[in-house]
Specification:
c-di-AMP_regulator; transmembrane helix; YbbR; mainly beta; membrane; 16-stranded mixed sheet; five-stranded mixed sheet
């Protein structure tokens, strides 16, 4: 019996499928012919204010929060009339003459009206019948305009030397609740890839005291700038070329403690990159691309051990019309090495260090490429001593993978003494 049923179902299968397709097509034709009634929700319909002068005058102004400046509308009607509607086809108005109580606080409520060509009013519904607005005194305040590149960068060979906006300041007028919270006015420009001087059009951005940006609709609808709309601002950008390989020359004042000498002075960083006008860079070149750290900042009076002078601001040392390139340290540290008289520092390549008892499954690496070894002897002996005459070794017995600071055993030729014990930081890895 099941086989007979299956045979009947599959009998003339192609004809049955064609019949279903034809039935669906006929249904669509009938539905389209009948033009059924449907509902559509259309969002983003702008609320248009009527009779603004009823509230706004020389001393008072109205303000609508951004969330109430657009609204969603539900439209019901024949599909042919409703399906093609857009937000621009629907007119929602708020007539300020319809405000019932002008003195209520903090809001007064304005009735909304809606219309749409070809759709009767009873077939259009709104999610709310009124919107709240605030009526308040007008405030006016003058703000300086700063210029910002918004994180954009010019061509890799340049830095922004100077930026000059076409307006230094602007007077902003509008509702007290907005104007009194303005924290900054910024002309933002895009300088990505810029490689020559010129004018760049800016986008004006307003931030409140909490550093939140005011919306574009607030700028256009609620505020006036020098009595007009949002101003157009241009920024004249001057680019400065970069110069790398600039070094420091360190001057000192005073003398170390009796029996001690300065054996060397280094800086961190050793070199920097600056930017400047063509004239300033040429003058720097004539000085050997050297920036001097003056003696009043580096006093070695009475010191008897290595001393660091930190947090020296590089910008305070730069010549006129030059600046630090971006991503360069703003400070320099000066390291003054001090040794007893009759001693000298030798730099031993870490490849010369013998590693004893290193686990067979481990490799060793060092924190620096050279090891400073301070040796004491007669002046003549020190002149004759070579780095290759110095032997260095470390014992790594029992150490597993990890980071360690280990003592270095130093063996010197006869007649020499080690000024101080030596250690080195090592990394052991499997």
């Amino acid at each position: 019996m099941k086989k007979n049923l299956l045979a009947k179902l599959t009998e003339n299968l192609a004809l049955k499928i064609i019949s279903v397709i034809i039935a669906i097509a006929i249904w669509y034709v009938v539905v389209d012919y009948n033009d059924p009634v449907i509902q559509r929700s259309i969002s983003g319909v702008e609320v248009q204010v009527r009779n603004a002068s009823y509230v706004a005058n020389g001393k008072r102004v109205y303000h609508i929060d951004d969330q109430y400046k657009t609204i969603s509308v539900i439209v019901e009607g024949n599909r042919s009339a409703v399906s093609g509607l857009t937000a621009s086809d629907i007119i929602v108005t708020a007539d300020l003459t319809q405000i019932v109580d002008m003195e209520s606080t903090p809001y007064v409520y304005v009735p909304l009206d809606v219309s749409c060509p070809g759709i009767s009013r009873e077939n259009i519904s709104l999610p709310r019948e009124t919107i709240p607005i605030t009526i308040e005194d007008i405030a006016s305040q003058k703000f300086a305009i700063s210029v910002d590149t918004g994180g954009t960068r010019p061509d890799k060979d340049f830095e922004i030397g100077s930026m000059r906006a076409s307006m230094d300041s602007v007077t902003i007028s509008g509702p007290q609740s907005i104007v009194n919270t303005i924290g900054s006015v910024v002309a933002e420009i895009n300088v990505n890839g810029l490689s020559e001087n010129g004018a760049v059009t800016a986008e004006l951005k307003i931030y409140d005291t909490a550093d939140n940006e005011l919306s574009e609709t607030t700028l256009e609808d609620d505020l006036s700038f020098d009595g007009t709309g949002v101003p157009e601002i241009e920024v004249q950008v001057e680019l400065w070329r970069k110069r790398s390989g600039v070094r420091f020359q360190v001057e000192t004042q005073g003398e170390p403690a009796e029996g001690y000498q300065i054996s060397g002075i280094t800086t961190t960083p050793g070199e920097i990159t600056v930017a400047g006008t063509d004239e300033a860079l040429e003058e720097l070149k004539q000085q050997g691309n050297i920036i001097t750290i003056p003696a009043e900042l580096i006093s070695v009076e009475g010191i008897s051990s290595d001393t660091e002078f930190t947090d020296i601001r590089i910008s305070d040392l730069l010549p006129e019309d030059t600046m630090l390139a971006s991503n360069v340290s703003e400070t320099v540290t000066v390291q003054v090495a001090v040794l007893p008289l009759g001693s000298q520092e030798f730099d031993l390549d870490v490849d010369q260090i013998v590693t004893n008892n290193l686990g067979s499954n481990l490799t060793v690496s060092y924190s620096s490429a050279e090891l400073a070894i301070r040796v004491q002897g007669t002046e003549q002996d020190l002149e004759e001593l070579q780095v290759s005459d110095i032997s260095a070794s470390i014992d790594l017995a029992g150490k597993t993978a990890g980071d360690y600071t280990v003592p270095v055993e130093i063996v010197l030729p006869a007649g020499y003494e080690l000024v101080e014990d030596v250690t080195i930081a090592v990394q052991l890895r499997e």
